[in-house]
Amino acid sequence: MLSKNKIKYIQSLGQKKHREEEGLFIAEGPKILEELLIPGFLQIREVLALPSWASTHQKQLGHIPCTILEDFELEKISQLATPNQVLALVEIPVADTIPAISDQVILALDDIRDPGNLGTIVRIADWFGINAVVCSRDTTDIYNPKTVQSAMGSIGRVRLFYTTLADWLFSQTDTPVYAAVLEGEDVTTMKKVSRGIILIGNESKGISPEILEMVTDKITIPARGKAESLNAAVATGIILSHLV
User: Fold this and answer.
1) Whole-angstrom Cα distance, residue 90 to residue 63?
2) Statement to judge: residues 205 and 169 lie in one domain
3) Averaged pLDDT of the chain
4) 95 against 142, higher pLDDT
5) Which structural domain, as residue segments, surrounds residue 133?
6) E strand or H helix at 61, and its extent?
7) Measuring CA to CA, how many Å separate 174 from each of 8, 101, 153, 180, 214?
8) Closest among 138, 107, 125 to 202, alpha carbons compared
9) What's the confidence (pLDDT) of residue 203?
10) Fewer CB within 10 Å, N or C, the chain?
């Protein structure tokens, strides 16, 4: 039986302030947990699960502490509308140095506010083999429960770095920066990119003027219809499919 204090503690991790204080975030559901149990850069502190899930995954859990719950207890600590078998407390990794561009493509995000959008972008980056995403400080928190849910297991394979984006871009001398804008070179006619930064902005406001000044190549997804703009995650997928 979970104590009231433990329930309140886990519930509090739904808020960014408490996640940062405790260095933990919540991951939920069988699919995410199965992927996070594969050794990577994320470490699971504790698992709380229904008996059926715990018994099936006893071997994969190894030495990770596992608390067995009743359905009603999982409902109390879950961040989901419909709780799903298992919840884990996962350690937030210590902030690392942003990797050098060298011979890779890095995704950069300017002011992506929607948690679901950010999580989907992380999954897309993972699909195309991009393992580093550099975010402006006003981009939503990757450890928001909605973001974690949208990113699925990709959250354990793609590292996100939060920084003052303008300063970081300024330091990337001799590195091509491809920015998604409404008027630019047709991305469907461009050659593949093996090195550089692909920059995606806020879908309603676009890329901030200060950052846009540092762009070397403006790129566009040509429109055939009358939609005003594309969802940022959809745009990311289309651009990466042509450039990476």
Assistant:
1) 14
2) yes
3) 96
4) 142
5) 105-243
6) helix 58-61
7) 50, 10, 34, 19, 11
8) 138
9) 84
10) N
Residue the block writes with tokens 């298992």: 86
Give the up-direction half-sphere exposure of residue 221: CA atoms within 13 A in the CB hemisphere. Answer: 19
Beta bridge partners of 177: 197
Residue 96 lies in a domain: no
Closest C-alpha among 15, 40, 37, 38 to residue 26: 15
Residue 103 DSSP code: T
**Number of neighbouring beta carbons within 10 Å of residue 212:** 16
Q: Which two tokens mark 116?
A: 């679901």
Give domain status of residue 97, yes or no.
no
Answer yes or no: are the C-beta atoms of 100 and 125 closer than 8 Å. no
Quote the CA–CA distance of 82 and 194 in Å, as a whole number: 42
pTM equals 0.95
CB 150 within 8 A of CB 119: yes
Residues 6+ apart with CB under 8 A from 85: 29, 30, 49, 50, 52, 53, 74
